[in-house]
Amino acid sequence: MSAPDSSKLSLNTATVREKWNLAQAIEGCARHGIRGISPWRDQVAELGLNKAVSLVKSHGLAVTGLCRGGFFTARDWRDDNRRAIEEAHALGAQCLVLVVGGLIPGSKDLPGSREKVKEGIAAILPEARKAGVPLAIEPLHPMQAADRACVNTLKQALDICDALGDGIGVAVDAYHVWWDPELEAQVARAGKKRILAYHICDWLVPTRDLLNDRGMMGDGVIDLPRIRGMVEGAGYAGFHEVEIFSKLDWWQRDPDTVLSTCKDRHARMT
Ligand code: ZN
């Protein structure tokens, strides 16, 4: 593998969210020469949507995704997703990331929950198309099937895409899909048109917290150059978005150190 293009690095703001608000993250990216950013909606709301739009523009950043819509198995999913589409449109986001939601509350019906997710996505897709906002289904590792996403493989996500047509694709997050024996085939199946985002971090051994113990690239066991080879081999030429939830480590560090480490590891370990 040749080295990754450093201009493709993007920061998912979850990586520094304990110490920086969105305005600080935007300024931090600009200061470190990071060209892409993917904010979370609560941070956008805190800063104000218009202010967020103008800061992103004035710093010349690409918005590589907006996190997140989804949770189709929860109540009030429709209005929340409608707002998420509007915000993604205003920000010029390359996609709205969908964390689709886990089991229907009180249910043990996994196939039924997946069906409800598909219906929910189908219901919002026309609005997303009209707004020009591609929807990116992010399959999550099966350890989160119950509470966060009952879509757990790229195959499941792409089956939904096949059923629903244009305007929808996938976010390939190395942390969530690295273990999948069908990864290579499904990334190829997704292809250039449907890979809407590529997220990176690393899988730590041991993992001490199911949600918030992701590792910095190079500190774990994921063969990141190999997965980048797959997504680029499929035609993806977009950003590599660093997304690290790390309560026990990186969230406690100085965010400028985190960003310079991201740049260094992106160049050497991905
Ligand atoms: Zn992700």
Bound molecules: zinc ion
Mean pLDDT: 97
CATH homologous superfamily placement: Divalent-metal-dependent TIM barrel enzymes
Structural class: alpha/beta
Give structural notes.
The protein has 10 helices and 9 strands. The protein is an alpha/beta fold. The model has no long low-confidence stretch (mean pLDDT 97). β1, α1 and β2 (36-38) form a beta-alpha-beta unit. It has one domain (6-269): Divalent-metal-dependent TIM barrel enzymes (TIM Barrel), CATH 3.20.20.150. Strands 3-2-1-9-8-7-6-5-4 form a 9-stranded parallel β-sheet. Zinc ion binds next to β7.
Comma- or semicolon-separated keywords:
single chain; 270 residues; alpha/beta; TIM Barrel; 9-stranded parallel beta sheet
